[in-house]
Known about the structure:
The protein has helices at 3-11, 16-31, 35-48, 53-65, 69-82, 87-99, 103-113, 119-132, 135-142, 145-148, 153-165, 169-182, 187-211, 215-228, 233-249, 253-266, 271-283, 287-300, 304-320, 325-329, 337-350, 359-380, 382-389. With 429 residues, the chain is an all-alpha fold. The protein has a domain at 325-390: DnaJ domain (Helix Hairpins, Orthogonal Bundle).
Amino acid sequence: MDSCRRTGLRVLGATQAEIEHHLEMGRKLLAAGQLAEALSHYHSAVEGDSKNYLTFYKRAAVFLAMGKSKSALPDLTRAIQLKPDFLAARLQRGNILLKQGNTQEAWEDFNEVISPWDPESRELRAECYIRMGDLQKAIQDLTPTTRLRNDNRAAFLKLSMLHYSLGEHHESLNHVRECLKLDQDDKECFSHYKQVKKLSKQLDSAEELIQAESYQEALDKYEAVMKTEPNVPYYTNLAKERICFSLVKMKSTHEAIDVCSEAHQRDPRNANILRDRAEAFILNQEYEKAVEDYKEALDFDDKQELKEGLERAQKLLKISQKRDYYKILGVSRSANKQEIIKAYRKLAQQWHPDNFQSEAEKKEAEKKFIDIASAKEVLTDPEMRQKFDAGEDPLDPENQQGGGRDQPWPFHFDPFQSGGSFHFKFHYN
């Protein structure tokens, strides 16, 4: 030992031999469980040599054995300051910081310690990531530990639970099955397996029903999903989104708007929900709201279908400001041909010009009658109705070659006969 160090020790009133004695006594007393006595000797050792990182580390070990992690923390920090690459101290400090909830600081220590072949440090860092909310990084750290430890059922179960909470139910099922391969009687793994398997089966079945256009059955299945797993937001949000979609496809307009709005509140940045609510608004002839939803959806996703949906909603809005054949007949956009004809007959009889006496009343009735007749022509012709639903008025002269009258007369009558006497002939097809 160099002369400078010897001098320093004499100034403190302790020789190297005395320090070694305190350390040895501390070790023996610690092993015997006499923690207070051991701590006293380590205090003396630290006072005798304040530059020895191991002395601080050993005193920290006594504090930890006594359950005094807060007292151990300064000693571990001092040991690391004296020897920055002292990984054992970093690992211990990381554990304390993690328990105290200082996840970022704990992560920094674990990150220094981590080794590709050390499962314990990977598991500790994964725990930090979990508490920080970064589940994907936790999965990255935990995955190799399933191979680094024999019979690591705990890691397989935790991985399964992490994937499950992220909505990755197939991956979750794969990992929990690996746990059961190691021990088919593992109660925790088997319990989780039953839950994941049930939910996964319901989700797969629901999507198959949607693909088969069995929307009511799909809706029922997604409602069952919410009962199976009401506590994981991913699954409840997904179920609401797909129920919203199914109701739109079923043309259950008002219910669709309500459910889609609830789904939007749960998941405000979901472009699919905004798209589906926009379609529900279109069914309800609320074109301005549909345009707003499509625009908002495009803020989160620039898919071509959203651009096309916005263009169609804007066309429908423009047309509705002129003539909306559904509104003229007072029917919904989902009305079938029989409903359209029934509505037409009622309105045609009500607004037949022969029912009115004064010239002004006849002119007003004539205008309404022509609109009613036009609406019936468009909405009972599949090709014309398809064009109108796509945002194009098939009777608008601007959309026809060679122009034409402002108002078409699809029925065989001329309201402008001489003498002012009206004689209408129309067909109830």
